[in-house]
Every structure is written in structure tokens, then in C-alpha cells.
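Rotation project, supervised by the postdoc (A.L.). Task for the rotation student: set up a whole-complex structure prediction and record inputs and outputs verbatim in this book. Inputs entered:
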Amino acid sequence: PEAADLRSLAKLLLESYLKYFPLTKAKARAILSGKTGDNAPFVYHDMKSLPEGERFINCVGLVQEPTDEVQLRFFYSCQSRSAEAVREVTEFAKSIPGFVGLDLNDQVTLLKYGVIEVLIIMWAPLMNKDGTLISYGQIFMTREFLKSLRKPFCDMMEPKFEFSVKFNTLELYDSDMALFLAVIILSGAIEELPETVSTSLELQLKLNHPDSLQLFAKVLQKMTDLRQIVTDHVHLIQLLKKTEVDMCLHPLLQEIMRDLY
Amino acid sequence: LKEKHKILHRLLQNSTSPVEL
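Outputs recorded:
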């Protein structure tokens, strides 16, 4: 009976994951491996291709900054997409059994500390060693292009690529990802809640990957790596705020990153 | 926390639309 409860928890979280994160790992891998036929993504490979690809960026709630500079417009649309992704993660968090019953301040704390980790984990399936899908899979941005940007922007994505390429070798399914995201969100200050979800993840990994030894331990180990990536990312953003006088940071992202690490 | 995280609070209490963000 206990295993049945854990399985139903896994099912519930997968349903919620599919509801809030439409670009699943399965879909992303299909796009990246060219299995989507004529719907291949537009490729960003240099500055000239940025304005050409703007028609593919259909971000809702795009920050309307008065700028003609294409790089800045792109930067603001990235921020809008990130804010929207935070909203999606919040809705997913609210669907985790027990989450909304927590004190509201505890919910804020868990989201503040977990949401960037969740976003980086969710980004991993959109990446391969050559680049990343963005804009709901409509655009592929090459790793070389990102590395060619001026400092410090060129340093922003490379650690995420290195992490993602390694993380993707674990070959988790969307159903595993749903549980892992819930574990990340709940693994802040609260002691008892994560146990059920993490036991469910452990069971699920054994069922889904019977030949992959110690997979649960390997997945949990990634949380340590993630914490460092988020810390470095936040420090980089804080540096940008000091050095890039024209840069505006989205208020929701400011809230999350303020006093984070 | 509430004063410093007004948008997060709002997201947690309501299903804020992307446009409101």
C-alpha cells in the first residue's frame, strides 16, 4: 500500500508537470535530434541572426523597454521568459501535496531558494553540447555564439552547458524530472515533507532505470552542483547590476536574487 | 519577507497572469 501511495504521488506530480511545462524533455529531445520534420527551430548563430529570429519570440508579457538595440531587446525578452517560467514553477509548487498548507512565509522561502535551481534543471533537457533551445523550442541558440559575446555575458551560460551535458547522461524521463523538481522545491528548510517525495523519486528511479546503479544517489548529488551554479549565477547578475548602468532587471527576478547568496 | 517579496506572495496567493507579471 505504501508503494501504491508513492506511485500515485508520482502520477499526480507528472500530471502537474505536463500541465505547467508544455515543452517536455521528450519534445525537446525530438526537436534537438531533428525528428520534428519541417518544424526545425530557427538558429541563432551570430548577431545578424538575432533580428531575423525576433518573429519567433512570442513571449507574453514582454517588457516594453524603449530601445532599438536588438541585443537589449533580446536580453529583456529573456528576462520576461524567465519571469514567466518562475510563474509556471510557482503553479507547479502549489500542486505539490502539502505545499499550500505551509506558512506563506515558508512557501516564499522555499520558492526563493529553489526556483533558480529548478529553472536550471528544466533547462538541461533543452541543451546539448552545441547549443540550447529557447522560446518554447522555436529557436536554437548555438553555444559558440553565446561564448562569443563580450564579457561578462560570455561567462553566463558556459557553466550551465557543462552541468547540463553531464546531467543529461543520467537520461531521466519526464516522470523522473517531475519528482526531482518537487524534491528541489521542498528541500529548503522544511524537514518532513521532502521525505515522501524523495522516497517516491527513489522508487520511481528503481522502476524506470533498473540497470542504472546508484542513480538516486547520483541525482541527489546534482543538487550540490546546482547550488554552486546558482550562487555563481547570482553573483554574476549582481556584478552586471553594478557594471552595466543601462541594464534593468525584472522586478520579480530582483526579488528572488536579492539577499539570496 | 512579505514586504520584500510582494510579487512572489501574489503569485502564491493568486494565479497571476503573464501580462500582470
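Student's summary: The first strand of chain A starts at residue 42 and ends at 44.
Supervisor addendum: The interface with chain B takes residues 60-61, 80, 83-84, 86-87, 90-91, 94, 104-105, 107-109, 111-112, 251-252, 255-256, 258-259 of chain A (CB under 8 Å).
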